[in-house]
Structure formats: structure tokens, C-alpha cells
Amino acid sequence: MFGARGTVSTPRAAVLANRATRLGAANGMALWLMGCGVLTLLLTACSLVIGTSSIETSWHWLWMPDEQSAVVLWQIRLPRTLGAWCVGALLGLCGATAQGLFRNPLAEPYLLGTASGAALGVAISLIAVDSTIGELAWAGRLGLTGAACIGAIGATFLTIALSRGVLQTTRLLLAGIVVASVLAAATSLILLTKPDIFRAMQTFLLGSTAFLGWPSVALLGSVLGICLVPGLLWSRGLDALTLGEDTARSLGLSLPILRLALLGMISLGTAATVGEVGVVMFVGLMAPHVVRETLSVNHRQLLIAAPVCGGALLQAADLLCRWIIRPAELPVGAVTACVGGAYLVWLLWRRNRDA
Amino acid sequence: MKGTRLATVLLLVLAVAVAASAAHAEAFVLRDDAARQVSFTRDPQRIITMLPSLTETVCALDACDRLVATDRYSNYPAQAEALPKAGGLDDVILELIVSLRPDLVLLSRSQRITERLADLGIQSFVLNSESYADIARSIQIIGRILGASARADTLKRHIAATVEDIGARALAQRQGLKPSVYFEVDRAPYAAGPASFIGELLTRLGTRNIVTADLGPFPKLNPEYVVRHPPDVIFVAASDAEQLAERPGWGQLRAVKERRFCSFTSRVTDTIVRPGPRVAEGMQALAGCLARVAP
Fold this sequence. Notes:
The structure holds two protein chains of two kinds. Chain A is 78% helix and 0% strand. By secondary structure, chain A is mainly α. Chain A starts with 10 loop residues before the first helix and ends with a helix. In chain B, helix 6 runs antiparallel to helix 7 and helix 12 (266-273) packs across helix 13. Chain B is elongated, with a radius of gyration of 24 Å. The chains are: A mainly alpha, B alpha/beta. Chains A and B meet through helix 3 and helix 7 of A and helix 4 and helix 5 of B.
């Protein structure tokens, strides 16, 4: 139902179709990327003038900056919106990769249990800060970001171990679900015994871009760069995989290596995002669908377009959550869940009607 | 001649020493509850507090006019309630804080904010107020920071004396009887154990908490626990008091049958649950209700 457009039944037909549409697709892609780029620039500009102060004040600041407005504009608003872009881009990239890798249009970046693992890490870190137990002191020193990253990566390892390697995608998916539920249960247990960390946990689970500074942007940007490399290297492999595992193997593709590399990338990318902003739902699921709805793409193009789209999506969500109840703000994860959920329902409804 | 020169030199040395020691007395370093060494070169004049008990402490030390913003839960005294609200500890509005140019942000432990404030070049000081002992400690430290140590000493002594007095009168009134109490924080039910701040106040009033200390400060109880350890008095939110009898088995509790409940308005509850300078008021409210309803 959500399958990639342009997927044709035989390899020969696929090659022919690809050749026939390449020229038009390349032009469309360029236009599309330019459009997204302009949108991103616009959103970045908007985010500079939207905050707790009025828009007029912010305009004034832009032209006549003083010491304090410089801090607000360049140390708070700009890193925040760029950080949000990076997070959205990483989620879009990981989501597109996961959908290609699992050949499942409902796959998303958190399906390996990373979100639950990160949440458990944060819960342990939060109680460790207050705890006098020697063994837990290291977790307190790690900080929330470090704990979330370790939790996310640990959950991925656990998933891969439980599915006994990466030979079967179904087994991986099921193991991911099991790991996610068990780790979520462990987090609930901690929350029950330590209710005082409830609010801090909730903020984390709903996602918040409020604390992104330049160091976070640097980290997220470099992780995005690192994750793009295996994605683009193996994009041909993902194309082959759309034709089925047997065909991919017959084309000389080593599936275990492809899976390990891409799972590692998904794990690293989501770990970085949950560490910095918490759990942001639906962006990773939605961005690849938006791209496929508007463009006919192969995986190389998708893995470039989905991050660009995801980045713009999260930037827009971040703007919305700052705007709606100014000067307070909504958790960004709640905004993306509402918008993303509505979009998917609309997509479903439209496809059903067309069918 | 020689004598006068020597005297002049000695005087000069003395003057320099005095000046140096005065300058030294100006700047000081305090260790906060996040284990950071924070140095103060002058009394902060633009302060933001991110916890109601800290707001109340600053105001109790006559420095309310130095506050420029508080967190959204700070609603006392009236002067602080009218100030801009910089969100809560978990969703702080950084822009507002920066735009108010504070020279000190007082907050309780929240790693993300302290790190981000340090990035932005804003000085913050972490103070955890959780127990009864923390009240006096916070007052003393904030007094030192504000340059109001003498006022802090007076306030501390006044609070300690009032608390002692309320406790002693409650004990005398009850003539050795020790009513058992159950303080419900939340209908989950979470209870306030003896290790919590509320529990400490109740113990000082000569009551016996049905929750034991080993269960922790705010344990989530099995409702059966309350039936097995029947309290003489139940502290419960007014909205939940009517439904207590409907909880399985609770209808048989003597405290429920005889309606030995203590419920408080939110303004009074604030004084009971916040480890701040109004602790004596909160304790007085607890004592007053106990005197009315305890068997």
C-alpha cells in the first residue's frame, strides 16, 4: 500500500523504467531539493524572530543587535533551529534506511528498541544523580545525553543478540518489539519506585528541543555526516533488496554485511537524536513517505531527500511548539505525533479511496 | 627620624594588609549541591529562582525586590507572584532568563539547565531543599550569597524555636498518646513516609506514621497495606476524601467510618509540602487538624 513508487516486478523492466525516467527524475529531484532548501532557509529565518519576545522586538534585534539580543539570537534560537534540523534529518535518514532494509513501509528509526533503551538509560541516570550507591555514581557522571546514547546502542545490541544475528529481518523486528517492551517495563518499574523523577522523564519521553546549543549542533551534524556514508554506499544494495532477498543475493550482494552496516548506522543516528532531544515520534516514519508521495526516487535519491525533508519537518514542528502557547512551549514530540499521525491517516484514507 | 620612617612603613604595610583582607572578604567561593565551586564577587542584584521554596527563602530574607523572575509554581509572597514566570525546572524558558540579564539563577538539581546556563554565561547555584534540615541550610547559604547572614541567623533561629514550640505543645496536649497517621500524596496511592519532609513534620508532632522508614520517602503502597496497618487519622486531598469508603476494604477502617480526615486548601498545602521558611505555618496547620480529629 505504501510501497515505493517505481518498483517494477522484474529487474529488466526496472532497469528500462529507470533509464526512461532518469532524465525527468533528475530534474524533478533537483527542483524538489531546491524547494526544500528554500523552505529550510525560510524556517530558519522565521525561527530567529519567533520566541518569547514579540516579532517586532526580534526584527529590531536583527538590525540593531545589542549584547543581550545577540545571545538570544545566536546562542539560543539559531543553534536550536539548526539542531532541530539535524535531528529531523537524522530521523528521516534512519527512517528511510529502516524502511528499505526491512522492506516494510511502517518501519521507523525506533524499531530496534532504541527509544526504550535510551529512556531506561535516562531513568537510571536520573536516579543515579541523587543516589549514594557507589555502583550508580558513574551513571550520574555520564549525564543524560551519554546515558541515553548508551541505552540506545545497548538496546540495539540486545535486539541483534536476541534475534541471533542479522540473518532474518522478521526475527529482528520481533526481537526489537520484545526488547522495547521489556526495557519500557523496566523504566516503569524505576518510575514507580522513584516517583520524583516522573516529570523529568516525561519531558524526555515527549521530546524537547529547548536545550540544544552549539555543542549539540556540532555533535548532531557530525553524526549526520557519518551516517550518510554507509547509507549512500549501500543505497544500490537497498535498491536490489526491493526486488526480494533472493534476487539481491543473486546480484552478488552480501546481505549480512549490508544489514550490519545499516543497523549500526540506524542505531548510531537514533542514539544521537534521543540523547540530545528525547523521543520524537513520526518524523522518521513520515519523511520518507512525503518524499515518495511527491517524487519518484531510487534509494540513493531517497537517502538524500528524506533527511532534507525530515529536517524541514522538525524545524517546522519546533517553530509550531514555540508559537502556539507563547511564551511557554509545547513538547516538540507531541506536535510531531499530532501532525505525523494526521498525515498518515490522511494518506491511508486517500489510498483507500483511490483503490 | 628613623623611628618615624619605620612607623610610616609599618602603617603602609598595615593599610595594604587591611585593604587586601577587605577585598578578600568581598569575594568568596561556595560549593553547591551539584558539587560545583561557585565564586561570588559581589552581592547578586538580579536573581531568578526556579523553585517555590527558594523564592520564599529569598523573600523571607527581605530580598524580594532583587528577584526579576521565578518559576511558574512560585505563588508566594504576592510580590513574587507578580513577577515574570520562566517556566518550570523541566521546561525552562531560556530566552526569558537571558533577556532579564540575571546575575544569579537559584535552582535545584537539574543537570540540563545548569549546563545550558553555564554555556550562556549565566551564573547558577544549585540548592536541594528536601528535608527539614535543608531549610536551615538553604537559609544560611542564601543569606551568605545575599550578604544577609545576620538576617539569616535570626530567621533560622525563629523557625527552629517556633517548630520546637508547636511540637512541644502538641505533645503536651495529647498526654503521651501517639496517634497513627497516613498521609496520602496521590491517589495511586503514594504515601509520605517518615523519611520525607512531610513525614518529618508529622513525627515532630508526636505521631506514628503507618509507613515505615525503610519503604522510602514516597512509596507507592498496595491499598491493602493501609487496611493491614489502620491509621487513626488520614491526611488526604479534599476531592479524594469522599471516595475513601469506596476503596475495597477501606470502608471498615475506623478513621474512614468516623471521618477522621485532614484535608487542606491548596494555599495551606503549599506551606506543608514546601521545605521553605513557612514550615512553621504548615506544621501549625497539621497540628491544628490533628488536635481536632485525632481520637
